Automatic annotation (TrEMBL):
<comment type="pathway">
    <text>Amino-acid biosynthesis; L-methionine biosynthesis via de novo pathway; O-succinyl-L-homoserine from L-homoserine: step 1/1.</text>
</comment>
<dbReference type="GO" id="GO:0004414">
    <property type="term" value="F:homoserine O-acetyltransferase activity"/>
</dbReference>
<dbReference type="GO" id="GO:0009086">
    <property type="term" value="P:methionine biosynthetic process"/>
</dbReference>
<keyword id="KW-0963">Cytoplasm</keyword>
<comment type="similarity">
    <text>Belongs to the AB hydrolase superfamily. MetX family.</text>
</comment>
<feature type="domain" description="AB hydrolase-1">
    <location>
        <begin position="48"/>
        <end position="341"/>
    </location>
</feature>
<feature type="binding site">
    <location>
        <position position="224"/>
    </location>
    <ligand>
        <name>substrate</name>
    </ligand>
</feature>
<dbReference type="Pfam" id="PF00561">
    <property type="entry name" value="Abhydrolase_1"/>
</dbReference>
<dbReference type="InterPro" id="IPR008220">
    <property type="entry name" value="HAT_MetX-like"/>
</dbReference>
<keyword id="KW-0028">Amino-acid biosynthesis</keyword>
<feature type="active site" description="Nucleophile">
    <location>
        <position position="154"/>
    </location>
</feature>
<keyword id="KW-0808">Transferase</keyword>
<keyword id="KW-0486">Methionine biosynthesis</keyword>
<comment type="function">
    <text>Transfers a succinyl group from succinyl-CoA to L-homoserine, forming succinyl-L-homoserine.</text>
</comment>
<dbReference type="InterPro" id="IPR029058">
    <property type="entry name" value="AB_hydrolase_fold"/>
</dbReference>
<keyword id="KW-0012">Acyltransferase</keyword>
<protein>
    <recommendedName>
        <fullName>Homoserine O-succinyltransferase</fullName>
        <ecNumber>2.3.1.46</ecNumber>
    </recommendedName>
</protein>
Length: 379
């Protein structure tokens, strides 16, 4: 029996775009598909639509289930649904798998119409700006002229910020959770180590592993293990695992001894069984390249001059990957432009993953903000 506060059983939908999309890297996708899901109903004024943007390993499957198996729940099931903070009795919620993804939208594993083979390494580098441009076309397809809100955590929050810059009249509220205006050198370093794990895997075959019938499983596994460490906080790992030993005593070998090792290897193996290595490379590069202030000589305030939306910016005290200071940089730039900004720093022990957790304070804040969004077209 599924949770009555869930949107229930859902099905993804696919839309094909034949209009070429010019990418920031200078290349063009002649045609492409986007996979998306919707929850709730679009009101007659088409003014209650909310776009949820996913983070690095997310997808269009934001809420609901594909079967009675609770393991098929969407990645933000605790946030989106009837009576939940993003209430589908009030909002029409859209989740989309970004270009370059591996959950149905056109990406490296898709067939290149020009060659009849998977794109593989030939798939172009995509950026946050490219994703926002493609999402705008999806909005056109759905008949949505303006989003009531664009919401996202981490890389998804970066997309919400980019929406406010690139399409200022098409978003009334931008909600950026556990995000940053650009990556620090340390974050870029983490991403590069993860990419090197994949690129140096013998089964990677320069990105064309599909034609060899193999998967660079070891590289993906290591990349995910490294990434997962950065998503957690020291306190959360200590509380959950401490120095617990699987066998109760030291074995003086190289196999798994500590519970945290077992957990990380499990997460790595699970991720490598379903995520595409080329997509992982693309997503981390999109993170690296995100820097709206870059064209303005590093002036973030200048980057946000076009913005007209109201903003909710949320950070978490234990998030050392995208620290609260990075969110405060965003807030300052928004206030410099005299924009309507709400900022909250939530006390949490869960690190960067806090935006995915069902924290009462965090959810109450999200609920209060969403309830105050005017779905008649105003703020």
């Amino acid at each position: 029996m599924l949770d009555p506060t869930s949107v229930g059983l859902v099905k993804p939908q696919t839309v094909r775009f034949d209009e070429p999309l010019m990418l920031k890297c200078g290349r063009t996708l002649s045609r492409y598909e986007l996979v998306y899901e919707t929850y709730g109903e679009l009101n007659p004024a088409r003014s209650n639509a909310v776009l949820v943007c996913h983070a690095l390993s997310g997808s269009h499957h934001v809420a609901g289930y594909y079967s009675e198996d609770r393991k098929s729940a969407g990645w933000w099931e605790n946030m989106v649904g009837p009576g939940k903070p993003i209430d589908t009795r009030r909002f029409f919620v859209v989740g989309v798998n970004n270009l370059g993804g591996c959950h149905g939208s056109t990406g490296p594993a898709s067939i290149n119409p020009e060659t009849g083979k998977p794109y593989g390494a030939s798939f172009p580098i995509v950026t946050v700006e490219d994703w926002v441009a493609s999402q705008a076309r999806l909005a056109d397809y759905l008949g949505i002229e303006q989003w009531a809100a664009v919401v996202g955590g981490s890389l998804g929050g970066m997309q919400a910020l980019q929406w406010s810059i690139d399409f200022p009249t098409r978003v009334r509220h931008a909600i950026a959770i556990a995000a940053a205006p650009k990556l620090t050198a340390q974050n870029i370093a983490f991403n590069d180590v993860a990419r090197q794990a994949i690129l140096t895997d013998p089964d990677f075959h320069n990105g064309d592993f599909y034609s060899y019938g193999v998967v660079p499983r070891w590289g993906l596994r290591l990349a995910r293990m490294l990434g997962h460490i950065t998503y957690l906080s020291d306190d959360s790992m200590a509380e959950k695992f401490g120095r617990e030993l699987r066998a109760g005593d030291y074995t003086f070998g190289w196999d798994i001894e500590f519970e945290i090792e077992s957990y990380l290897r499990y997460q790595g193996d699970k991720f490598a069984s379903h995520f595409d290595a080329n997509t992982y490379l693309l997503m981390t590069k999109a993170l690296d390249y995100f820097d709206p202030a870059y064209p303005y000589g590093g002036d973030l305030s200048a980057a946000f001059r076009p913005a007209r939306a109201a903003f909710l910016v949320i950070s978490f005290t234990s998030d050392w990957r995208f620290s609260p200071g990075r969110s405060r940089d965003i807030v300052k730039a928004l206030l410099d432009n005299k924009l309507d900004v709400t900022y909250a720093e939530i006390t949490s022990a869960h690190g960067h993953d806090s935006f995915l957790m069902e924290d009462p304070h965090y959810h109450a804040l999200m609920r209060a903000y969403m309830e105050n969004i005017d779905i008649g077209g105003g703020r």
